């Protein structure tokens, strides 16, 4: 029996509907009618030879087979789009100067650079890992073509930028399966009795740092004593110090190593922290094709690059409205 040949247009409708949470929105995004998308999904189930959806209240959820199909759909569409980009950009040459913060060095950069280099082998990429202040300065001086920068709202955004996502700041400490035992200063929560008897040691980036200021201000408002336990200009050093039990640090959940985990702020008696915004900046309003392509790849990779917080192990719901 011949294997089915899956239609990429059908797979794109399938994947887009799951990403947007609604096949009506997917139809609008793809320029098709809702009935046409519904027919595509029936065709996909027929080709798969098994049910991909099941009823979940008033909507639909993926079956196990549907989850498997979605993973393959993402891979097939990614390869197709990569091939199309390679054909369009086979003759592109030049240099793209990319700036980003350490949070994305291991989780985001390898996959993005791999896809970009395969599609544009004649384009050279220079990556600069730096903190937000230096990245903003380099952009202003024309030393970067593209940059991913965390913004906290204490400065006006730079020109030619877009906010690509928002992420809450989190209290982060040594992973429970990594630390032999909790140190005496560890927050005991509301039921712990005598909580915060010792100042809370903080593991933070060197000043000036907006996150450092936001963290200490939140503790001051909550009346929680604190002290500086460790500081460094390196994010990797913060992870190491936190894992070693020198104190708690504060970051988003992007790029967390396995040696640390997100704390439940409420259970630990710690103040809730605000969200910060991630901005994708371009040096020019109309960037060159190579810069625009790398920006597209960064946007696509970002939603997949955030590590799940180890404090909440439950998987995200997969249901979509009918």
From TrEMBL:
The keyword DNA-binding applies. Residues 6-63 form the HTH lysR-type domain. It holds the Pfam family LysR_substrate. The keyword Transcription regulation applies. Keywords: DNA-binding, Transcription, Transcription regulation. GO terms for molecular function: DNA binding. It comes from the Bacteria. Signal peptide: none annotated. Belongs to the LysR transcriptional regulatory family. PANTHER family: HTH-TYPE TRANSCRIPTIONAL REGULATOR LRHA-RELATED, TRANSCRIPTIONAL REGULATOR. This is DNA-binding transcriptional LysR family regulator. It comes from Variovorax ginsengisoli. The lineage of its organism: Bacteria, Pseudomonadati, Pseudomonadota, Betaproteobacteria, Burkholderiales.
């Amino acid at each position: 029996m011949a294997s089915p040949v899956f239609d990429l247009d059908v797979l794109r409708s399938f994947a887009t509907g799951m990403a947007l949470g609604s096949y009506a929105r997917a139809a609008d995004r793809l320029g098709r009618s809702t009935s046409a998308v519904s027919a595509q999904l029936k065709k996909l189930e027929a080709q798969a030879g098994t049910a991909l959806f099941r009823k979940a209240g008033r909507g639909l959820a993926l079956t196990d087979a549907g989850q498997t199909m979605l993973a393959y759909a993402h891979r097939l569409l990614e390869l197709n789009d990569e091939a199309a980009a390679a054909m369009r950009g086979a003759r592109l040459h030049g240099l793209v100067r990319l700036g980003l913060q350490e949070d994305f060095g291991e989780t985001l950069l390898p996959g993005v650079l791999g896809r970009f280099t395969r599609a544009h082998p004649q384009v050279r990429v220079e990556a600069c890992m730096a903190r937000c202040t230096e990245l903003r300065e380099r952009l202003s001086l024309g030393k970067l073509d593209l940059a991913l920068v965390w913004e906290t709202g204490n400065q006006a955004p730079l020109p030619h930028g877009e906010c690509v996502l928002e992420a809450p700041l989190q209290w982060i400490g040594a992973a429970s399966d990594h630390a032999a035992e909790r140190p005496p200063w560890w927050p005991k929560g509301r039921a712990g009795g005598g909580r915060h008897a010792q100042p809370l040691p903080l593991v933070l980036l060197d000043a000036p740092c907006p996150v450092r200021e936001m963290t200490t201000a939140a503790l001051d408002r909550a009346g929680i004593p604190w002290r500086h336990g460790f500081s460094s200009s390196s994010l990797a050093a913060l992870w190491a110090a936190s894992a070693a039990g020198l104190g708690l640090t504060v970051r988003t959940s992007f790029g967390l190593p396995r040696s640390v985990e997100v704390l439940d702020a409420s259970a630990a008696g710690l103040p809730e922290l605000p969200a910060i915004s991630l901005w994708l900046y371009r040096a020019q309003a109309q960037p060159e094709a190579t810069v625009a392509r790398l920006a597209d790849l960064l946007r696509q990779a970002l939603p997949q690059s955030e590590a799940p917080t180890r404090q909440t192990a439950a998987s995200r719901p997969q249901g979509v409205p009918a």
